[in-house]
Amino acid sequence: MIKKLSLVCIFMLIALNIFSNPVKASSGPPVPSADSAVLMNAVTGEILYAKNPNNAYPPASTTKILTTLLTLENCELDEILTVGEGPAQAEGSSIYLLPGEQLTVRDVLYGLNLQSGNDCAEALAEHIAGSVENFAEMMNKRARELGCENSNFRNPSGLYDKDHRTSAKDLALILKELIKYPEYLEIASTMTHIIEPNNKSTETRYVWNKNKLLQPSSKYYYKGAWAGKTGYTTQSQHSYVAVAERDGQILIVTLVHDSSADYYQDTINLFNYGFSNFKTNNFINKNEILTNYTLNDNTTIPVIAGDNFFYTTYVNSDSKASFKLNLLEETLNSSSIKAGDKIGSADILLDGKTIGSMEVFSGADHVVEQKMLFHSASVLKVEDKSINLNLFYIIGSILVFLLILIAIKNKQILSEFFYKFKRKRADN
Question: % helix / strand / coil in the chain, to the nearest 5?
């Protein structure tokens, strides 16, 4: 009995300890093995996790996402590309393009993204810019435009060059822009693509997708994965970029300079962390009414959002974004405002901190009522009439006075005439 009571007491103590100190799930993010890593909200651009995000390393074939972006920005997919001597001799991975071979840009992009063909990268570079060197200049210019601050690209393929470097943050910015193109998502998610025989090749080529996050048979298959790109050279080590969607939220993972080759699992861990802990909130859409603003004449105009605005919060957060208007007084005080006129900007705030801004526009035409102006004009008109009337009176008075003078003068002349006439008769 004593032993049974002792066991009961022990179990009760254990239970009390468990309930009084519940186990808390770890809220910390997983730590990837890559030297530079970023988890980004693909809609807002907010970085949800970072490890040395600005450290630059050789990125190997993840370079090809920038080559793809420039191709989609400068070419039509059905354009015919003629392969030069240089691309046909490119080092590393290849789909074995032939000098003088003519293919569509679409086919070459499939070879670039699915088979990671370095020959495809150089062929696209020459087609767009005339040379690999010119294309590298385009790459660096476009990267700077996207906000990349730690990148220097020397070639379109990612072949090792000591000066060819980028960071996880910069790759995330490039991929964020690239996924705006449905053509890219279609290409990058295709499992197999066939390149038909052409003027130089009598054989049908097959290119297969190497991205294991998209392969249903792979242990790394990730439901909701849209696209990705691997990269590896001995000097560059492993790099990987990927994008995935769940419940309307789109996330990007970029990993650079990974010596352990754990990038697939690290990507999955980061995606799971991001989808489990964060949510994307829609504050307002472009052309929606942000508020109605009261003008000095007590009339109102709708203030229209100049762009979509999304922001990220933790999944359990009740925080809601607000805004602060910064309006252009000169525009608002003008005599008329047209629908679509820019009238200022709005700072977007979350928990008292500014998280972004947008331009705002008038949602309607508005003509300032000219009551005071009309009144002043009326007074001027009345005054003008008064002046004209007074002038009429003055001129009339002068004329009357002159007529009276003339009449008086005439009366004197007539009197003298009759006086002289009477005297002359009397003398007769």
Answer: 40, 25, 35
pTM: 0.78
pLDDT in tens, 292-316: 999 888 889 999 999 999 999 999 9
First to last CA, the chain: 183
Whole-angstrom Cα distance, residue 243 to residue 238? 17
The DSSP secondary structure of 24-36, one letter per residue, reads PPP-SPP--SSSE
User: What pLDDT was estimated at residue 378?
Assistant: 38
Six-digit token string for 235? 């000097």
Q: Are residues 302 and 410 in the same domain?
A: no
Does the pLDDT value for residue 371 go beyond 90? Answer: no
Whether residue 52 contacts residue 33, with contact meaning beta carbons closer than 8 Å, is answered with no
**Cα–Cα dist 46/277, whole Å:** 14
Residue at a domain's end among 249, 279, 309: 279
Alpha-carbon Rg for the chain, nearest whole angstrom, is 41
Residues 92 and 190 in one domain: yes
Task: Identify the domain containing residue 361 by its residue range.
Answer: 285-367
Q: What's the rounded Cα separation, in Å, for the pair 63 and 153?
A: 8
* Residue spans of beta strands (DSSP E) within 68-128: 80-82, 102-104
Helices (H), 130-234: 132-145, 168-178, 182-189
Give a yes or no: residue 317 inside a domain: yes
Q: Compute the distance between CA of residue 221 and CA of residue 326 in angstroms, rounded to an integer.
A: 48
Mean pLDDT for the chain overall: 86
The answer as to whether 228 is a domain residue is yes
Q: Who contacts 308 (Cβ-Cβ below 8 Å, separation ≥6)?
A: 282, 284, 285, 286
Helix (H, G, I), strand (E, B) or coil at 167: coil
Residue 258 sits in the same domain as residue 127: yes
Q: How would you classify the pairing of strands 249-258 and 237-246?
A: antiparallel
The SS3 assignment for 98 reads coil
Q: What is the pLDDT of residues 155-207, one digit of tens each?
A: 999 999 999 999 999 999 999 999 999 999 999 999 999 999 999 999 999 99
